[in-house]
Amino acid sequence: MITxxxxxxxxxxxxxxxxxxxxxxxxxxxxxGTDVEYDKSTNLIAGSVVVMDYNTLAVxxxxxxxxxxxFPYIPGLFSFREMPPLLxxxxxxxxxxxxxxxxxxxxxxxxRFGLACHFGVTLDKPVIGCGKTRLCGEYENLGETRGSVAxxxxxxxxxxxxxxLRTRDGINPVFVSTGHKVSLATxxxxxxxxATQYRLPETTRLADHYARLALLAYKSGSKEPPAGI
DNA sequence: GCGACAG
DNA sequence: ATCTTGTCGC
Length: 229
Ligand SMILES: [Mg+2]
Description:
Elements: H1 4-14, E1 30-38, E2 44-53, E3 59-68, H2 79-92, E4 99-102, H3 115-123, E5 127-131, E6 149-153, E7 160-165, E8 174-180, H4 184-194, H5 202-220
Parallel strand pairs: 1-4, 4-5
Antiparallel strand pairs: 1-2, 2-3, 5-8, 6-7, 7-8
Helix pairs in contact: 2-3
The chain binds 2 DNA strands through strand 1 and helix 2.
């Protein structure tokens, strides 16, 4: 299908569409989380989107989609691997969220167009990028307590591309960046608010859980291979 | 050429 | 992402 070289050209073309200021509902009522799980033995993957109440974090809707991977994992081209199942799951969603938090970077990317940007521009919805580890950029002097923030600066042009955010005292930070229609400051506030009990936002944790379930359900209710010979 | 490198 | 129980530290 699409080649890595073509994917890079597409990113450089779409990056101009990213909006880095707040263009989202007042007040925020619902928030969605997304994640993709992989099956070690087959090339199946499952993407899930879970919508939660912004204040109570009650689950309002969930949609998942299983399919075969269509693109290899290449740092910088991650969205071409994980977006397919997420777009289909999102399409099936019965409740439209006010904003979305993706499990990966937004602007904190070599070409300033990570998964959160690609997903946001594609859906034209507010999206926040929240990665567990760093893809690019450097930061220093991050405090040890929850709520501590340190700017993530791009190595090449010294641009502010995101924030390292400590969501739990003394535990590794998460990396927050604008995906689309959410400023870095707002994105950082929201991730801290949604990461109530663990390092990761509850949205990401729940999406991860539902994607796992979807993969297991799909495999059990599918063809022959496993169990009885 | 070598090391880094979202999930 | 995935392989995976116990173990070290706060
Ligand atoms: Mg993930």
